[in-house]
Design goal:
Blueprint (H helix, E strand, L loop, with lengths): L7 E5 L11 H11 L6 E3 L5 H10 L4 E6 L1 H11 L5 E6 L5 H6 L5 H10 L1 E10 L2 E3 L2 E5 H14 L4 H14 L4 E7 L2 E7 L1 E6 L20 E5 L5 H13 L9 E5 L1 E5 L4 E6 L2 E6 L2 E14 L1
Parallel strand pairs: 1-2, 1-3, 3-4
Antiparallel strand pairs: 5-6, 5-16, 7-10, 7-14, 8-9, 8-13, 10-11, 11-12, 13-16, 14-15
Helix pairs in contact: 1-5, 2-3, 6-7
């Protein structure tokens, strides 16, 4: 059953993946045809999304709609979570993982129709030292890759070229993290090139690789590769595409409601939904069950 919202604020990220082909006017037209309120539409840079969402809530908006990619959705969700407001998604990014996992159409007109006629459900979000994430958090190789990619983009490299060059750099200086994990009262010490923490369980192989079937189980999905060599990680990537990484020696995966992690340093570089941040060590990851209200088909 659709929910009627008296006031909607639409935040558009002009730098999102599809924005080069989708104007603010086209977004407004799609919303208008769907029957949505279009009186409050703002073009907002990604770095200002959270601030704009907070301002909209203070002014009484009951739905914050993000027109952008996962980074924009994550920024708005960090503000909407824990409130009575709902999050709406117009997936205009490159990958749109969150929208896909919720079954939100990637077509603009169809996604706008969901906002007008969809239903509101409560889903989980993850939390890393008080910083929310909707998809995943990681330390190690992937966080380094995201940081390198961002640096290259700042000097004018295109996103995919920057991604490829960053991957080569990170691969050349392959290194392990020594981390101490506390999970359900048990302590483990491992050497791993990465620690991945998903908001609910990810598919680890096959055609649904990287997707999630459930976003409301109240669990984190932790993946590591203790002691795995550089060649082993290469095999892991291939196995994920053509086989099942869970059967690969050296790969470790489990779910938990909360995980504490210490890496023996004062601060750690982490990637939260593709944004690189510095977090104080130790890290505490936890699930916040049902914290985010979102409009879905």
């Amino acid at each position: 059953m659709a929910t009627y919202y008296q006031r909607i604020t639409v935040l558009i990220n002009p730098r999102a993946g599809k924005q080069s082909a989708t104007s603010a006017g086209q977004i407004a037209d799609a919303l208008r045809v769907a029957g949505c309120d279009t009186s409050d539409i703002r073009v907002t840079e990604g770095s200002s999304f959270a601030r704009a969402a907070a301002d909209a809530l203070q002014r009484g908006s009951q739905m914050i709609v993000t027109a952008g990619g996962d980074g924009s959705v994550s920024a708005a969700a960090s503000v909407v979570a824990g409130t009575d407001a709902a999050l709406g998604v117009l997936p205009l990014g490159t990958l749109n993982h969150f929208a896909k996992d919720l079954g939100i159409p990637l077509d603009l007109a169809e996604a706008a129709a969901v906002l007008a006629r969809g239903r509101t459900v409560s889903v989980d979000i993850g939390d890393a030292n008080g910083r929310p994430f909707i998809n995943n958090a990681s330390i190690g190789m992937y966080a380094s890759l995201v940081s390198e990619r961002a640096a290259m983009q700042r000097v004018g490299r295109g996103k995919w070229i920057a991604h490829g060059l960053a991957a080569i750099r990170v691969w050349r200086r392959y290194r392990y993290l020594r981390v101490v994990l506390d999970v359900d009262g048990e302590r483990r010490t491992v050497r791993t090139p990465f620690v991945f923490v998903g908001n609910n369980e990810y598919q680890l192989s096959g055609l649904e690789l990287g997707g999630r079937k459930v976003l409301a189980a109240g669990r984190l999905h932790v993946c590591m590769a203790p002691g795995m060599s550089r060649g082993g990680v290469a095999r892991l990537i291939m196995e994920a595409i053509f086989g099942d990484v869970c059967n690969l020696d050296g790969f470790d995966s489990f779910t938990a409601a909360a995980v504490a992690l210490s890496a023996g340093t004062s601060r750690l570089q982490a990637s939260l939904d593709g944004e690189v941040v510095m977090l104080d060590n130790p890290l505490t990851f936890r699930s916040r069950p049902g914290a985010l209200r979102v409009v879905v088909p």
